[in-house]
Amino acid sequence: MAVDENEARILAQWMQQLAQALQIVDLEVDQELLLDLARKSAGSVIHAAAPVTTFMVGYAAGLKAGTGSGDSESSATAAISKAANVAFQLCEDGTSGGPAGKGWANTAQ
């Protein structure tokens, strides 16, 4: 989901403000990844799937990164990438497929 330069600046400021309010230190967010995931899930399922999908990807990534060892930043980045890839794969099926049809193998679970 492309945003213009002004929207990108406003979004970056909002994300920084939100991270500070939530006391999340040194958070690096791939804005384009999250916006693309929101766009893809909204178009593949229904519009309301966008915030739900991005929340669940973040939650899954947080759980995975929290149990990992080693560098927490690289663990978080890898966990986000893996969870986002699972969500993108599910978006390809829209409401006609997904884990209920395929099982949970090879997902973030």
Quick tags:
5 helices, Molybdopterin-guanine dinucleotide biosynthesis protein, DUF6457, single chain, globular
Distance between the termini: 27 Å
Count up the helices.
5
The share of residues in extended strands comes to: under 5%
Q: Calculate the mean pLDDT score and round it.
A: 83
**Largest sheet, strands/sense/barrel:** none
The Cα radius of gyration reads: 15 Å
Number-wise, the strands total 0
Helix content: 55-70%
Query: Any low-confidence stretches, pLDDT <50, length ≥5?
Result: none
Q: What does the overall shape look like? A: globular
Structural class: mainly alpha
H/E element sequence: HHHHH
Word description of this protein:
The protein is mainly alpha-helical. It has a domain at 30-102. It has five helices and no strands. It has helices at 5-21, 31-44, 49-67, 72-93, 99-102. The longest helix is centred in the last third of the chain and has 22 residues, at 72-93. The chain is globular and about 40 Å long. The mean pLDDT is 83.
Which secondary structure elements does this structure contain, and how are they paired or packed?
Layout: H1 5-21, H2 31-44, H3 49-67, H4 72-93, H5 99-102
Helix pairs in contact: 2-3, 2-4, 3-4
Pfam family, one: DUF6457
Domain DUF6457: 7-87
InterPro entries: DUF6457 (IPR045598)
